[in-house]
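Exercise 7. Predict the structure of Phosphatase from Acetobacter oryzoeni.
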Amino acid sequence: MNLNEVKAAVPGIRVAEPDIIKNWQENPIFRGKPDLKHKRLKAYRILESKQSDKEKIGGDNEEFLRSSNIRISFHTDVEKEFSRIHELVNRTNQLNFTKNRWPEDVEEARKLFEKEVSEEFFSDFGYIKVSDSYGDYGICGFYFAKPGYMQHFLFSCRIMNMGVEQYVWNKLGRKHIDIKPPTASDLNNPSKVDWITLCDDANAQDSHKDDSSLNSLQVCLRGACDLAMTSFFLKTKFETIEEFNYSVHPWEVHTNARSLGLYKDQESDLDIRTILEKTLGPDFNRYNSDIIQEKSDVYVISFSQEGFMSSYRHKETGLILSLRCMHMFPGTDACDADYTSLAYDDVKDFLTDTTEEKWTYFKENYEFIGGFRNSDIVKEQFQNDVIHIFTRLKHAQKKVIILGLNEKIGNLPELVKLWSSINSIVKPLAEAYEYDYIDINDYVKTDADLTDELGGAHYKRSIYKKFSDVIADCIAKV
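Solution. The predicted structure, encoded as tokens:
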């Protein structure tokens, strides 16, 4: 074939006449990345050694991997290693599942990354280090997750066929990836990777020490966005169960203390179960929790949601339940909405799954008693529910860590006042039960620690990292 035929057959290929050979050393096309420490040569020698050892045990890849002492670690200081990560994003192909490239200019890429992070509060990102008995592979992977999907998910081919990408994907919750072929690996195969050890720093000299007992601890995180953000850092260190707020249209299922009390009551009392079945709101089986099941080793709990629901008392039994609808009905308060004041015609277009019979039962059998901000009855019930939770976990001999609430910083005085009131109940109880209590006011000290809206509920990513470090230190005492 002549040169033009080659160009036609392979679009994008570079071709040249033979006279290019005499000056090829000066030609920028052939100029590679400087490698004065011969890292590529070392990598090829490692590969050669691994292949030889694999053949000695019969060529079984999983058996070989189990004998290789593979260690990985997750890191979040992306800014510090941005040049290497930029290289991975733009140069990897075989194990780059997303292939979303950044600008070639590093500073432009940095600005784009910072913009993407600032636009999504619940973004999660980090890089991966890998080592094994044969050597230290350095920074080999990068992920950038947004709610529901991966924006970036990629690895260097130097860790191909080690199961690293499958392990990381499982560890991060198997978020959706819009895979852009071709790729040299199937994230679903193998489905279980149990030959990799998680450590603090895979490239450290002592990364071989056995932390498996600590890393295998199951940690239940129960709260709202404070723990949802902190979980990004903790789930790369421990096995985690996450219990955060979610919606069951049109209701919000909150991780408040009352929901656990209700679940306990309806489990032990058939009359209460019957009452709850007649009551509007989500199926109360949704309020089941790992605190009830007692399967985790450690429980990290935040009570930040207590002030955002309205409470109702059953007239005959005195049973108290808390509700919050996603829809803001005219004439109701966002946090202390009195739904008993609304006629069925006011709500039927939005509460499409609520029958007139159920609404009538609710209005006739419940009385509105306010919310945490304005009802001593609600505060007393909250204290009783916290005591129930703490007592249950104490009897189960579980490690419990309480994340306190911001009561000083922000431009929403009603919010910090509310959280101060919650702290005044929770902190003395935590101390009485000898549970670890993290006072976040030791870390949230100025407006600079808050996100840009400065309300007081959301903090800079570095603050959540500090929370996770303190929690990890508490867990290490188990």
